[in-house]
Amino acid sequence: MEALRRLLSHRRAVRGGQLLIGLIFATASLSKIGDLSAFALQVHNFRLAPVWSENLIAMTLPWIELTAALSLLSGVRPRAGALIVTVLMVGFTAGVVGAMVRGLDFECGCFGTADHTRVGAVKLAENLLMLGISLLAVRQPLPADPSASTSRAC
What we know:
The chain has one domain. The chain is built from 6 helices and no strands. The protein has helices at residues 2-8, 11-33, 36-46, 54-74, 78-101, 121-137.
């Protein structure tokens, strides 16, 4: 178990998780920004927000996602970006579970009109996987092992 913890805390694993979830969120946000009216309909389909706020959510959420993605991809405050992505993934996963419990059947809109995945077990599994990646991305990497580097004295 300790070996797994060390592996998941390795700086390359953490950075890889940051890049992967950053790419996923950049793709998702850009596809939503490209068709805000379709995304507003998807927000409506979840029936979680008051009708008056659906357009506001559809206009702001993709930009929050894009900002977090750019933070992750650029390496500027990547843990902050990963924390935002993690909070969003918890909310998205709760939304999928809520829709499943209420028996709603619609396309989730997670990747705008580019994705036709319906709310259900597959979408829940995808969200849980992305939540796991975001949790990896938010980890504090272990410091580099000083004994691994060799110094060359002249």
